[in-house]
From TrEMBL:
It comes from Mus musculus (Mouse). This is Amine oxidase. Keywords: Copper, Metal-binding, Oxidoreductase, TPQ. Its cofactor is Ca(2+); Cu cation. Gene3D superfamilies: 3.10.450.40.
Amino acid sequence: MDQWSAASLTSLCTWQILSLRAMRLAQMSLAFGWAAVILLLQTADTASAVTTPHDKARIFADLSPQEIKAVHSFLMSRKELGLESSKNLTLAKNSVFLIEMLLPKKKNVLKFLDEGRKSPVREARAIIFFGAQDHPNVTEFAVGPLPRPCYVQALSPRPGHHLSWSSRPISTAEYDLLYHMLNRAITPLHQFFLDTTGFSFLGCDDRFLTFTDVAPRGVESGQRRSWLIVQRYVEGYFLHPTGLEILVDH
């Protein structure tokens, strides 16, 4: 009986020692776990608080393809703008001509770079041709904030930089219209060009004519006239003129 009691007592002591060790290991594991969590949170706070040179330079970065698509989709969804696809072959439409990054104001940039203030709002500049109006015009808009725009605001033109309808850049649709107009104008000269150059606007093979337009498109405010230089469409076509130049008022 005493032997069994001694053995039981030994087993009990061993079990208690093992239990204490297990509890101590569990406490140490819990302490290490909390320490790791605290260290991770401190590291995250430090990383979020530090502004790297790359982060600072990003305020001047060009728009990404995703940002351009987001701005275009947002503008097309604004019914009051009445926008159409820029590919429609007409000038009597409202369409987006250009989307680019809008530089933030200098004072906001300096506060961000020198004083560690909040980064300026990232915005895009959208240039829209309003041709479907009684008085067509070119208007610039600020669209933001990126990458998820929710507002569009008209930008006031700089003093002495009024954007007139006649001074707008030529769009792809307008180039297509000029080509069709030139094709109709030169149709009576089809046989003449075949006899003298071997090329024609009406040709179905690779021997056809093209043109190059020349700027400036006027010498007075409100003028929009371009010289179209008819050329053979071969490699280096600008070195192969036909000698015919047409002045187009458009």
